[in-house]
Design goal:
The structure is a single chain. By secondary structure, this protein is an alpha+beta fold. It is 19% helix and 36% strand. The strands form three sheets. The protein has a 15-stranded mixed sheet that branches. The protein is globular. It starts with a helix and ends with a strand. Keywords: Membrane, Transmembrane, Transmembrane helix. InterPro entries: FecR, FecR_C, Ferrdict_sens_TM. This is FecR family protein.
Length: 306
């Protein structure tokens, strides 16, 4: 198949007749499907310039799926979305995609129903190409900020390894990495239910959040919205001790940070940093407030603070 024509098909710029010809070619054999998938993967793997470039994949039918990535580096798409037209077999529509965001990066995607999702560093989201007739379900490992398109007949549900979040149409943030004990859901607008095994545990109101503590789930007020600036590439912290701050930097930059001084580990900080500036920039700015030195072991990917 002509590569230029296949690329135009993915972009949605071919005529209806040309599209049908491509679909017929794709369905002729597994080899053709694999060739199409390879081209699709190359097309979906985008490099972004945060300051000046906002690329967008535009596909032209109701079953089109748009992925937008808002970061300097590429987001790794583990299973890539396919462009499905009305005449492609229905059994392919249930295929799921998983998007994984590496450390120090973030991603924004638009689901088939118009719901917008921002994914934080080291997060993954699994979702179907097409939602079922009565349910919209996605699986999150990590942190995501959701702006859900309202649909009373089709509730939206975020499944995590700890609890599930059920919504009809709202704006909220979920923090739930599989490999940690942390679970937090903060509601900005609308209403959400926190569920476990299909049972409703807590209903949140706007400007409140639920966190998982040693004593179980607790509902608290949202004191400020600076934390949610992560989706704009900003690390924000409010009166956090150095130890908690370093845990956050470990997550965002995929590096181990060891604090050898108990004296400075309890020092508290308030501030904001751009994620793209890097972990060493954050440390150098912190050095202006407290006296410490750090060493970086490149081979073992460890920073030691003394």
């Amino acid at each position: 198949m002509n590569q230029e024509k296949l690329r135009k098909y993915i972009e949605g710029t071919l005529s209806s007749t040309e599209k049908k010809d491509i679909v017929h070619w794709i369905n002729e054999s597994k080899e053709h499907m694999q060739e199409y998938m390879s081209m699709r993967r190359l097309y979906d793997l985008l490099i972004w310039n945060e300051d000046s470039v906002k690329a967008k994949s535009k596909l032209s039918t109701k079953r089109d799926f748009v992925v937008e990535v808002l970061k300097i580096a590429a987001v790794v798409i583990l299973v890539f979305s396919l462009t499905y037209y009305l005449f492609i077999p229905n059994d392919l529509i249930s295929q799921k995609q998983t998007i994984y965001v590496p450390a120090g990066q973030r991603a924004r995607i638009t689901l088939i129903d118009g719901t917008e999702v921002w994914l934080n560093a080291k997060s993954s989201l699994t979702f179907p190409s097409q939602f079922t007739s009565d349910n919209r379900e996605v699986h999150l490992n990590g942190e995501g900020y959701f702006k859900v398109t309202p649909n009373k007949e089709k509730p939206f549900r975020v499944v995590t390894s700890k609890y599930n979040i059920k919504v009809l149409g709202t704006e909220f943030n979920v923090l739930a990495y599989d490999n940690t004990s942390i679970f937090e859901t903060a509601l900005i607008k609308g209403a959400v239910d926190i569920e476990s095994n299909g049972n409703r545990l807590i209903s949140l109101k706007p400007e409140t959040k639920v966190i998982l503590s040693k004593d179980g789930l607790k509902v608290l007020s949202i004191k400020h919205h600076n934390y949610f600036l992560w989706k704009d590439g900003i690390i924000s912290f409010e009166n956090e001790n150095l130890e908690a701050l370093m845990k956050k930097l470990e997550l965002y930059y995929d590096i181990k940070i060891q604090i050898k001084s108990q004296k400075i580990s309890t020092k508290r900080f308030t501030g904001k940093f751009r994620t793209k500036d890097g972990v060493e920039h954050v440390l150098r700015v912190l050095q202006l407030s407290i006296d410490f030195i750090y060493e970086k072991d490149e081979q073992n990917n460890i920073i030691t603070i003394r």
